[in-house]
Amino acid sequence: MDNSLRISHEKELNLEATELRLGLPGSDEPEKRSVVRSNKRSSPEASEELECMSKGNMNSNGSDVTSDHDQDNVVPPAKAQVVGWPPIRSYRKNNLQQKKGEEGEGSGMYVKVSMAGAPYLRKIDLKVYKSYPELLKTLGNMFKCTFGEYSEREGYNGSEYAPTYEDKDGDWMLVGDVPWNMFVSSCKRLRIMKGSEAKGLGCL
Amino acid sequence: MNKMEGQAPSPLPDQVLENVLETVLHFLSSRRDRNAASLVCKSWYRAEALTRSELFIGNCYAVSPRRATARFPRVRSLTIKGKPRFADFDLMPLNWGAHFTPWAQALAQSYPSLRRLHLKRMSLTDRDLTLLSLSFPHFQDLLLTCCEAFTTTGLAAIAANCRLLRVLDLAECVVEVADEEVDWISSFPETQEETHLESLVFDCVECPVNFQALERLVARSPSLRKLRLNRYVSMSQLHRLMHRAPQLTHLGTGSFSASELDPEPDYASAFAASKSLVCLSGFREIWPDYLPAIYPACANLTSLNFSYADINAHQLKSVIRHCHKLQTFWVLDSISDEGLQAVAETCKDLRELRVFPVNTREEIEGPVSEVGFEAISRGCRKLQSILFFCQRMTNAAVVAMSNNCPDLVVFRLCIIGQYRPDPETLEPMDEGFGAIVMNCKKLTRLAVSGLLTDRAFGYIGTYGKLIRTLSVAFAGDTDLGLKYVLEGCPNLQKLEIRDSPFGDGALRSGLHHFYNMRFLWMSSCKLTRQACQEVARRLPHLVLEVINSEEGKADDIEILYMYRSLDRPRDDAPKVVTILH
C-alpha cells in the first residue's frame, strides 16, 4: 500500500478519535473527568508509554523522551526526580521496585516452574521466549542445572535433569516434543524432573 | 525509698504526704499530666520523678543519658526517638547521629529492671543489642522502628539471652547483612518448653530464615498473637505456621505467591481456621490468584495492609466487599479511583486510610484523583487519619472532605507534582487546605502540597490552633507565610519545611515559641548563617545544626535542624554538620 492510499485509509478509520494519549491534565482534552476512572494500567498501550517514559528518564536525566509514537502525541519530558520527593521511604520504594522488576507491564503468560528436590518455586513468562533453546538456557540458569541434547527418540538422554511440562489435558510431556507455538499455548506448568523420572514421558 | 522507715514510730507529716503523693502518682500514666505534676513544687517534682516508670524522650539529643537516668531512677519502659522524619527521605547525611550506644551504656548501669525499650530512627549496633540482651534480666519488649546499623547477629543475641522476651517488633528497619548469615531464629533456646512470645515482627529483615526453627518456635509459643513474616517465607510455609498458631490476631504474610507444593494446600481453610484474625498485612510479591484465600478472614478484619500489593480495582473489590469492619486500610494507588469507590461503599467504619503511589512520576495521569478522594469522604464519615498521594487533586474535593469528615485528626495530602494548582480552576490549593483547618477542629497533624500562597498559611495560623505537626514542601511566597504559622499555632511542636521561600525574618518571628517545640527543620529555604547565629545567641538552650553539603562557611544555609536541649550540644556530629550555639 503506497503512502497516499494509506493516509486516506487511516482517515476513514478515524484513528485519531480512538487514539490513546498521555498528556498533562487539562491539556488538549475536552472530556470532563466526571466518570470514575478504571485502572488505566490494564491498557497495554498506555502501559507501554509509561514504560517508555520511565526508561527515557533512566537513560538521560530530564531530556526529551524519544518514542516511536506519533509526533502529535506531545508527551512532556520525564522530569528529573528531586531528592526525597515525593516523601516515600526508600524501604517502601525498594520493595515495589523489586516487584516490578519481576512482573513487568501488560499481560504475560506466567507458568510455575518447579524442580524435583528444590524447596522453592519460580514463575516465568513464556511470552518472553522465542524458542526452546532460549527457554532451556534460562531454566538451566535459574535452577543451576544442564539438560543435554534433546532428540526426538531419546529425549534428554544422558543428562541428570529433564524439563517437562503439564499440558492442557493434564498430561506430562517432555519439553521439546511439540512445535514451539503449540507448546506455548498448551503449557500449564513446568517441572524439572530427574532424568530417570522423565524416561516414561512424551509422545512415545 | 523512705528514709524514715524503721526509725520514729510515727513518720513526720511531710513524709506521710510524700508517701501518699507517691502512691497517688503511681496511677498517673499520661506523661503530660506527669510533667504538669512535676512543676507544682519540689516535693511533687521528687515524688513524680521517683514514680515515673514510663519515660518518653522525643529527641535523643534534647537530654543526655546521664541527666535522664539521674532524674528518673525507676524506669521500666523507655521510648527514644532519634533522627527527624525527613531523614527517611535521604535529606540527611549518612552517619548524622542518633547513636544508641551512650544510651545503652547508661541504661545498663541505671535500669536493671528495664522491661521495655522502643526506639525510633536510632542507629544501634550489634554490640548495643548484645549489651541490652545481657543487662536486663526482666527484659520483655523490644520495638525498633526505622532503626539501622545492626545485623542478624544482634538479633541472635536478643533471641538467645532474653528469656522472658514477649515482644520483638522490627518495623521498617534496615538490617545489614552480616558477613556470615546468622541463623537468629535458631537462637531462641529450644530448651525452653514454652516461650513468652506474644509478638514477633520481622518482615523487614531481608535474609532467609531457618523455617524449621521458626516452625518449632511458633509451635512452642502459645501466647503468640502477632506474627509478621518476611518475604522469604513461602505460601506453603505460611500455611504450616497458621496451623501451628490458629490463635493469631495479627498476621503478616510472607511471599504471597506460588509455593513449591503440588497440589497446593488449602489456604482458605487456614484463614477460616484463624478465627481471631483482625489484622492482615504482608502480601509481598503477590500473585493475585491467591487473594481468594483470605476471604474467610475478611469479615472480622479491622486492619488490612495492602501497601506492598500491586493489585487492581477488580482484584481489590473481590476482597474489600467482605470487609465491613475495616478501620485501618493501607493500599497502593494501583486500585485506582474505582477501587477507592468500592472502599467507600463498604468500609463505613474506616478511621485511617493511606494510599501510596506505585509510580511517583508527576507527569503521568495517576490512577487516583479527586474522584476517589471525594468518594472516600462521602462514604467514610468517621475518617480520622488520611495520607493520600496523587498526581491530581481539586480544591472542591478537599473542601468536601473537610465537611464530610469533621473528625479528622491527621490530614496529609501529597500532590506529587510540585506547585500544582487545582486542575479545574487553575487556582492555588489554598482554599482546600483552608477548609480543612477551618472545619476539622480536632486536627493535630497536617501535611500540605500543591500550589500554595501565603494565604494558605494565613488560614493555618488562624484556624490551626491544635496543630502539633506541620509538613511543608514547595509552598508559600514570602516570609509572611511562615510568620503566620509561628505566630498563630500555639501548639506547634514539630515543623518540617523544605524548598520554600522563607527567610531570616520568618525565623525571627518564632523566637517566642521555639522553646516549646521539639524541632524545626528547614531545608532549601532562604536562611542565612547570620540569622541562625543570632537565634542561637538569643536562645541558649537551642541547638542549631547547620548542614551544608560542601564543607565551608557558606552564608546560605542548606539545612537547618534546630531543637531544644538541656545539655551541651552533642560531640558526635559528622564534619558536614556545624553546630551553632
Describe the overall structure.
The complex is a heterodimer of chains A (204) and B (581). Helices cover 31% and strands 14% of the residues of chain A. Chain A has helices at 3-13, 15-18, 44-59, 90-103, 132-143, 180-186, and strands at 110-115, 122-125, 161-167, 172-174, 187-194. Chain B has a 21-stranded mixed beta sheet. By secondary structure, chain B is of the alpha/beta class. Classes of the chains: A alpha+beta (204), B alpha/beta (581). At the A-B interface, helix 3 and helix 4 of A face helix 13 and helix 14 of B.
Order of helices and strands of chain A: HHHHEEHEEHE
The largest sheet of chain A has its strands arranged as: 2-1-5-3-4
State the share of residues found in helices of chain A, binned by percent.
25-40%
Give the tally of β-strands of chain B.
23
- In helices, the fraction of residues of chain B equals 25-40%
Head-to-tail CA distance between termini of chain B: 39 Å
* Greatest chain-chain contact: A-B, 51 and 59 residues
Chain-averaged pLDDT of chain B:
94
What oligomeric state best describes the polypeptide chains here? heterodimer
Enumerate how many helices of chain B there are, as a single number: 20
Largest β sheet strand count, sense and barrel closure of chain A: 5 strands, mixed
Assign the structural class of chain B, choosing from mainly alpha, mainly beta, alpha/beta, alpha+beta, or little secondary structure.
Answer: alpha/beta
The portion of residues forming beta strands of chain B comes to 15-25%
**How many distinct beta strands of chain A?**
5
In angstroms, what is the radius of gyration of chain A?
24 Å
Secondary-structure class of chain A: alpha+beta
Q: What form of chain B results from the Cα inertia axes? A: globular
Largest sheet of chain B: 21 strands, mixed
The number of distinct helices of chain A, counting runs of at least 4 residues, comes to: 6
Unreliable sequence segments of chain A: 1-8, 25-75, 98-107
Q: So what's the overall shape of chain A?
A: elongated
